[in-house]
Amino acid sequence: MTTLTVPRILTQTLNEFVEQQVAEEGCANEAAYFAKLAEAERQRKIWDYYEQEVTRGLESGPPIPLTPEYWSEFLRKREERRNAHRSGENQ
After folding, report:
1. Are 33 and 21 in contact (CB under 8 A)?
2. Counting Cβ atoms within 10 Å, is residue 31 exposed (0-12), middle (13-18) or buried (19+)?
3. Domain range for residue 28?
4. Does residue 1 lie in a domain region?
């Protein structure tokens, strides 16, 4: 894993805020605090994506029953798409 070193470019006010957050959050140091912030942002973006996809699905038309037959067909088509994609990569 690559380590990111951030120079002290924060204003005094922001630096004090970060130090306070490090203590309140129980982080070992500033790097651990920023790693926690980055992970929280990554999780937020994942949930945003899921929310968009669910909304898209809800707006795509009337609901359909998800029967065993539906899933069999869905998985078969997905496998066909994967195989077509793989064979295209090998050419």
Report:
1. yes
2. middle
3. 12-89
4. no
pLDDT recorded at residue 4: 58
Question: Which alpha helices (DSSP H) does 1-91 contain, by range?
Answer: 12-25, 30-58, 68-89
Tokens 């496998």 locate to: 79
Is 5 a member of any domain? no
Residue 65 corresponds to which tokens in the numbers above? 């029953």
pLDDT of residue 14: 87
Report if pTM > 0.85: no
Residue 63 tokens read as: 């609901």
pLDDT per position as a tens digit, 43-66: 999 999 999 999 999 999 999 999
Measured in whole angstroms, how far is the alpha carbon of residue 29 from the centre of its chain?
25
Q: How far apart are CA 56 and CA 11, in angstroms?
A: 42
Question: Considering the domain boundaries, does residue 50 fall inside one?
Answer: yes
4 located within any domain: no
